[in-house]
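SAMPLE LOG
Freezer: B-3
Tube label: C17
Construct: single chain, 198 aa
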Amino acid sequence: MKESIYATRDIARELARKYSTMTHDELDVLESILVPIRYNKGDMILREGEICENIYYIEKGLVRQFYFKNGKQITEHLGEDHTIVMCIESLFREEPTKLQVEALEPTLVYALPKQHLEEVALHNVNIQILYRKILEESLIISQVHADLVRFETAQARYKKMCKLWPQVVLRAPLVYIASYLQMTPETLSRVRSSTLLE
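STRUCTURE (predicted):
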């Protein structure tokens, strides 16, 4: 699990580029709270009943956020390289989560512990902005997914997913894509076939 010192610096820079500009000192502070963690394919990053204490930045890999309903697994989110994953309700209420997060590929994440992030955000305005932008992005992605399954046809849902998250469509098992789009694997197969014929 040992990462080079340069790697955490690179990740701090990557996060700063994506979410907020930072001074050299602020980069030092951000780098100091990043925790690299490696997961093998099939490892659980977070289990039901645990409290989510981190925001996870996926440097490389693919993860699935899911829950159980009537004994079936429902995929809530699929996260790929250079994206964020968290269980937002558990993170802020500090209560056990009903969601689970699983690595679908060998995955390297950098954890941003919420407690440390909030402490350093108090004294660093650009880290405060980064924190806010990460939360905004997470809420927007949740809303996009909610609107997708609420308003779009099965075909439109799949096409939009291909446009927004092409790597996820290529890499995630079809059964999880179907679940995320709230359709059966059979419907997804039909939709994929008709999309290829267009």
